[in-house]
Amino acid sequence: MGTWDTGPFDNDTAADFAIALDEAEPEAREALIRGVLVRTIDATGHLTEAEEAVAAAALIAAQCPGGEPVDMSCGPEEPMPVFPSDLRTLADEALALIVDDEEGPASNWVDPKDWKQWRAILTRLRAVLAPPPPSMALFDVQPYRSVTQHGS
C-alpha cells in the first residue's frame, strides 16, 4: 500500500476507490459503498478492503451532523448521493473491525505517531457515525400540585 498521510483517502487503494466512485453512474455509488462495507464486515481473516471501507465511512460521516468534509484532492470529485441512515451502522461496524485488526492497516504504520493519528481519525469517524440516542421521553411527568381541601 502506498500511503502518503493518515487521512481516509491518503493511500493508493482508497484513491483508486475514489476513482471508481467517480467513474460509476451516480445511482451506483451507494451500492459500491454498501458493498465494500458489507464485504469488510463479513470478511473472515484478512480484511482485504479495509482501506476502501475507511474511505467509504468517511464519505458517510461527511453527511452526518458533526461530520467533516472529505478532502477533495484525494477523495472523489463527483458528488455523492444522500446516503440512507442504515449505512451509518454498517460503516461503524466496519470501522470497529478495522481498528481491532492488528494484522491489517494498523500494522502498516512504521511511526507510532502516525498510527496514533490514524487511529484518532477512525475514532472521530465512529463518534460521528454512532446513531444519536433516542429522544423519546421515558415518562410523562406532570408538575406536582398541592391540593388543599377546605373542611365542611
In short:
This protein is 47% helix and 0% strand. The protein has 5 helices and no strands. The longest helix has 18 residues, at 112-129.
Q: Which features does this protein show?
A:
mainly alpha, single chain, 152 residues
Mean pLDDT: 84
| Main pleated-sheet profile | none
Topology pattern, helix = H, strand = E: HHHHH
Q: Specify Rg, calculated over alpha carbons.
A: 21 Å
Assign a percent range to the helix content. 40-55%
What amount of the residues lies in strands?
Answer: under 5%
Give unreliable regions as ranges.
Answer: none
Number of strand segments: 0
Straight-line distance between termini: 90 Å
Can you tell me about this structure?
It is a single chain. The protein contains five helices and no strands. By secondary structure, the protein is an all-alpha fold. 31% of the residues are buried.
What is the topology?
Layout: H1 12-23, H2 29-42, H3 50-61, H4 86-100, H5 112-129
Helix pairs in contact: 1-3, 2-3, 2-4, 3-4, 3-5, 4-5
